[in-house]
Design a protein that fits this description.
mainly alpha; 67% helix
């Protein structure tokens, strides 16, 4: 590997490549269609990064979280619609899922009452917002668990083929 850069204020793409231990030339080879000069331009904020660049980097750098970063920080649609995922471990994610499920379980009767007339009245709004918040928390936790799995696969801690075989068996 070449010299490590001393540049300050490196963007996430620059640091991700360095953390993967790759030079721009090595990264370009792994990404096939992304040139070394394009990587330089992306890392130095001299070009607009494209989704195809991000997916290639995420795979080459074994950092699937780059996709979520791009969606939540750079994509004009994703900024408003995608939750930023925070790295977490399997135990924390599992506890969060069960905690949120318990909260939602206690709120299900109230949701049925609110939904009965097909509208959310003023006196129901606070309860409805609390239910929405828990559903959003559950959604974000599920997405974080998916990201955890993707990272574990990238790190070689989970065998992707084994998971795919297990998935086929249960479906």
């Amino acid at each position: 590997m070449g010299r490590r850069s001393t540049k300050e204020n490196k963007n996430i793409y620059f640091t991700s490549r360095e953390e993967a231990g790759l030079t721009r030339a090595q990264a370009s080879e792994l990404m096939e269609y992304v040139s070394e000069s394009r990587i330089d331009k992306i890392e130095n904020d001299r070009t607009i990064v494209q989704p195809s660049d991000i997916t290639a980097m995420a795979k080459a750098y074994k950092k699937p979280g780059l996709c979520n970063y791009y969606c939540t920080h750079e994509c004009s649609i994703g900024k408003d619609t995608v939750a930023e995922l925070q790295p977490s471990n399997f135990s924390e994610l599992t506890l969060s899922i069960f905690n949120t499920l318990n909260q939602l379980n206690s709120q299900k009767e109230r949701l049925l009452e609110i939904a009965e007339d097909g509208t959310v009245r003023e006196d129901e709004a606070e309860d409805f917002v609390a239910i929405q918040d828990n559903l959003n928390k559950m959604s974000a936790t599920i997405e974080s668990l998916k990201l955890w799995v993707d990272q574990a696969i990238a790190d070689g801690k989970i065998d992707k083929e084994y998971l795919e075989e297990a998935h086929e068996k249960i479906n």
